[in-house]
Amino acid sequence: MLFNSLLFLVFFVIVTITYYLLPHKLRWLWLLAASSYFYMYFKPVYILIILFTIIVDYCAGILIEKATGKTRRFYLILSLVTNIGVLAFYKYFNFLAANLNLLSDTFHGPQLPLLDFILPIGLSFHTFQAMSYTIEVYRGNQPAERHFGLYALYVMFYPQMVAGPIERPQHILPQLHRVNNFRSSNLITGLFFMAMGLFKKVVIADRLGLYVDPVFNNPHGHSALELLVATYFFAFQIYCDFSGYSDIAVGTALVLGIELMQNFNLPYLASNVSDFWKRWHISLSTWFRDYLYIPLGGSRINFRVTCINLLIVFMISGLWHGANWKYLVWGLIHGLLLVAYQLFNKYDIGIKGFTFLKWLFTFNLVSLAWVFFRAATVSDAFYILSKILAGKGFTYSAGNLMSVPELWYCAFIIIILLLGERYLRKAKDYSNTTKAVIIGGLILACYFLGIFNEAQFIYFQF
Amino acid sequence: MRKVTSLFILLISVALLLSSMNRSFINKLYFDKYFSHIYSKTTKETNWYKAFFSYSDKWRYGDLYGMSNLPQYKFELELFKHYNPKPGRQNTNRILYIIGDSFLADKILYGAFDAFDNVIFLDRRFAFGPIKLDSTKQNYLIMEFAERNLVTYDISKTDETRWTSNEIKNGLNFSNAPRLGNQPPAASIFERVGNIIFNKALSRNLELILFDNKLATSFKEVKASLNYKLFNRVAKEVTESTDKKRLFYNTTVDTASLQSAFRPKTRAALDSIVRKLDIARDYYRAIGFKKVFLSVIPNAVSIYDDKRMPYNHLLERVEQKTDLPVIPLYKTFKAEKRNLFYRSDTHWNPQGLDTWVNEADKVLTSNLN
């Protein structure tokens, strides 16, 4: 179910009102049923996959807690192997098989069959959330959850199950246990976040998508200027699409009395790449930091290991997004940028001041790196970048995709977003009346300037 | 008070959701809305039902208006005349079948042609068949296509249930033979429930229930005007004509679409279309039609805006290449001074249909034997 659909609006109203009308002891059941419906709306049978991992991780959590010594480790590995196995099978099998087939073809070897199915929606998100549970139980930071329904709800809580934020059990499970009484401030602030997220999605991301998608789908048919515009537009399309989703998720959960973590913190205002990753998809960055980077040694061993760890983490992070070489290259680029940043720090060649130039440099690097993320293939990405950098054909003839006034409007709204989002976010602390007025304004803008073309959120595919 | 309000909102929301899942209600609503401007005076529904449910602007002013909501293209559609038989017409013992699409759907044509006792229309967009002809009559067939639909036509991919080649070979009497073959297996209870509650059209159904009324139309028009005036953007399903006097269905214009009148068609593509028409013709002849005619109705853009890009002339090329007797329309329509298509709808207007009836009558009369 899409957040930007009429069905979701009706679903949200029914779920929220019923939730508060029910006694506390039945609420988990209602939320679990609603979350199951939300998930099953994409493809009902895939609920079985998630149910399988929930059962495994629920049992693993209890067994880890009860066990001692090597047995604890065994149960943790069992849980991780199950989760990663499911992820690998559904997300990476075809990628691996296709590449092995390519290799095998060179030597006239046998071919592996490719599997024909649609990737379960949000698989990477809820798998990572499930893994964080067993890891935290193993580390002793979280007691094993005895209530199967609440554990299932932790994995399947509908606002964040398909595209995050990827939560931690210490943060969510206590909130699911406690009695959440209705609070009008939660309702208004939740609706405020939802309206802000919807604004970002339908007013900005989906309008930019009207230009970006056809240009990236046919890069050879467009001039350097058109590709350059599409590149920078995509940077904001993906930000508004994903952070818009996160805002709606945060708002939806807050209306139910559950506080989710903020997933973005004005990432395009970052002054270096390291800073960017502290502001972009925070729940995933911290997941990789806590469960991969630090266990690999982090920055504690020596500089060489730190650099290798960064490259490993970012290449895996790239692949987490999708089974395609382009994501691996995108991850590698960010890994290399971070290594370069570490080198600057190590040899103390940091430049004092020039904040604006640092921001500009970082923003451009991140935007150009997105080309690998969005292009259909790695070779398309190289083609786009080489055409832009060659600077030939700086003409605009894509009026059929977007008129020049609309391009200027998009540029204007991007600037407003860059300058104004921090102030809009502060509005969550304003009075309920002020927030209600802002919500009304955002909803009107969504209706009159929004694009409602049943466009999915980009991160649903991951 | 808060609890009462919540309960009221909850009840409304649940009723809305259940209504959007109720396929027969949605079908009735769709049907009532689709025909509301035609049958508004004759339906027996109560006034509140009409006001809240059956009233629709989506089709009243043309399907292209309904998609774009541009107020400058808000033209009320003229109604089609009924082609009833002339009094005292002689019995001819001939039946005319038309297998066609939306251009001839819902039209009263059974008295349109003096050479035929009856005209039976079968809508290719929906399931029908197998055709059982009255063997005591002479049966003729027109295969009618909108130009945009001709490109993708393949009889084996339509929803028409056909007689098998064995059935045809064994010379069954098609007028009363039972349909052989296996019925598709019935859906399980899980599948049926799943199709209701996980129906992918629920959002569209809710939109049909909530936002196809006079109040919503005014909001939709403001939104459409704003986007048009500020950004020159219209709904993606629609394109404006070069002279800004009419709307076209975008798939007939956008060269990215197979159905575009401006997408170049190679000789091989043309041969493929003609071959598929021949296959259909052979099948229909085999089941008892005496003669099969071809009638391709041009896209509005092919008539009124064919200079906006190089036109592919598919219609004329197919008509020249095929062996089927053809009801030629392109030149007649181009030469016609009257407006033959609605300005805010994908289809022809009553003058367009009348022109077709006259042209078809000429071709049919001269090809009866």
Mean pLDDT of chain B: 87
What structural category do the secondary elements of chain B indicate?
Answer: alpha/beta
CATH class category label of the domain at 94-179 and 257-365 in chain B: Alpha Beta
Query: What is the name of the CATH topology of the domain at 94-179 and 257-365 in chain B?
Result: Rossmann fold
The number of domains of chain A is 2
| Helix share bin of chain A | over 70%
Strand content of chain A: under 5%
Can you name the CATH architecture of the domain at 94-179 and 257-365 in chain B? 3-Layer(aba) Sandwich
In N-to-C order, the SSE pattern of chain B is HHHHHEEEHHHHHEEHEHHHH
The side-by-side strand order for the widest beta sheet of chain B comes to 2-1-3-6
* Radius of gyration of chain A, taken over Cα atoms and rounded to an integer in Å: 23 Å
> How far from one another are the termini of chain A?
15 Å
Per DSSP, the total helix count of chain B is: 15
Q: What integer is the average pLDDT of chain A?
A: 90
How many individual β-strands of chain B? 6
Largest sheet of chain B: 4 strands, parallel
- SS elements, strand count of chain A: 0
Tally of helical runs of chain A: 17
Q: Could you write a compact summary of the structure shown?
A:
Chain A is mainly α and 462 residues long. Chain A has helices spanning 6-21, 24-40, 47-66, 70-106, 123-139, 148-156, 169-177, 184-217, 224-255, 273-279, 282-293, 303-321, 325-346, 355-374, 378-390, 404-426, 432-449. In chain B, 33% of the residues are buried.
Topology:
The complex is a heterodimer of chains A (462) and B (369).
Chain A: H1 6-21, H2 24-40, H3 47-66, H4 70-106, H5 123-139, H6 148-156, H7 169-177, H8 184-217, H9 224-255, H10 273-279, H11 282-293, H12 303-321, H13 325-346, H14 355-374, H15 378-390, H16 404-426, H17 432-449
Helix pairs in contact in A: 1-2, 2-6, 3-4, 3-5, 3-6, 4-5, 6-7, 8-9, 8-16, 8-17, 9-14, 9-15, 11-12, 12-13, 13-14, 14-15
Chain B: H1 2-21, H2 23-34, H3 36-39, H4 47-54, H5 63-68, E1 94-100, E2 118-123, E3 138-146, H6 147-150, H7 165-169, H8 189-197, H9 202-210, H10 214-231, E4 238-240, E5 247-249, H11 267-286, E6 291-297, H12 300-304, H13 314-321, H14 330-335, H15 350-365
Parallel strand pairs in B: 1-2, 1-3, 3-6
Antiparallel strand pairs in B: 4-5
Helix pairs in contact in B: 1-9, 11-13
